[in-house]
Amino acid sequence: MMTILAIVGGFLILTFGAEALVRGASAVALRLGIAPLVIGLTIVAFGTSAPELAVSLKSALAGNSGIALGNVIGSNIANIGLILALTALIRPIKVQSQMVKRDIPLMIAASVLFWFMLFDGELGFVDGLILVIALISYLVFSYISSKNSNEEIDVDTTPQNPLLSTVLIVVGICMLVGGGILFVDGAVDLAKAFGVSEVVIGLTIVAIGTSMPELVTSVVAALKGESDIAIGNVVGSNLFNILAILGITSLIQPVSSAGLQNFDFAVMLALAVVLLPFAWTGLRIGRREGGVLLAAYLAYISYLVINAA
Hints:
It is a single chain. By secondary structure, this protein is mainly α. It contains ten helices and four strands, in the order H-H-H-E-H-E-H-H-H-H-E-H-E-H. The strands form two sheets. A two-stranded antiparallel sheet has the order 1-4. Strands 2-3 form a two-stranded antiparallel ribbon. The two termini are about 25 Å apart. Mean pLDDT is about 80; it is low at about 150-160. It is found in: Membrane. This is Calcium/sodium antiporter.
């Protein structure tokens, strides 16, 4: 009963946290003259990736590298195959040219770099340092590009009070972290009760649990007509998961890839690559593309379940 309450309570907290974060971030974007896409790629992406950071750090320090690494790989797969797919099925997503020319290719490059770094079976301190430097460079470049852009900014300006907007962002992030951890703890306890392995838990239950903020935030943003925040949240979260989550975690504690298969990395990279032509065609991700992505994700999850059994 406590496990079920943790899962339900965590999801409710995530829902309210996502609503607060999207409202606050949209208002900040307008006030600072920053495009909503960049807000989605940075502030919203960092906020929704906060549960991944908490879970990965907690798992790595406890010696559970399988959960730490599986969490990031599984979350990146879920972000595209589940979150973006469901969002597109609910409402087709408009895509800016910047996304297909810069941000999605950078996500693909980060995925390739991540896979390459794990050829020796471990992410160490030097790997973490490279990832964090890449993250900082990306954030600085995104901010400068946004300020130099002549793109018209059109976002929901409610609320306009800067203090209230900041409070909503902070409260939203805190609720996403707390709700995400509560949801994951309940889900992991439920999975362990059925004898599911650590790596499979990381790739599925924990990954989906820590991706719940992205799901709720993207759906809320899409329903509000903030498609820039919706897709920026997913692509930005995938970048943050690799560059920030794994970067910070491996700086503190080396992360081993023991137990993970090349197939998992291949699926993560394949979905990132497929997203590029999907977004490029007509600069939108429609329900058909969403259906294909969701089918691919369900096939992957089915493979994991059958293989584990």
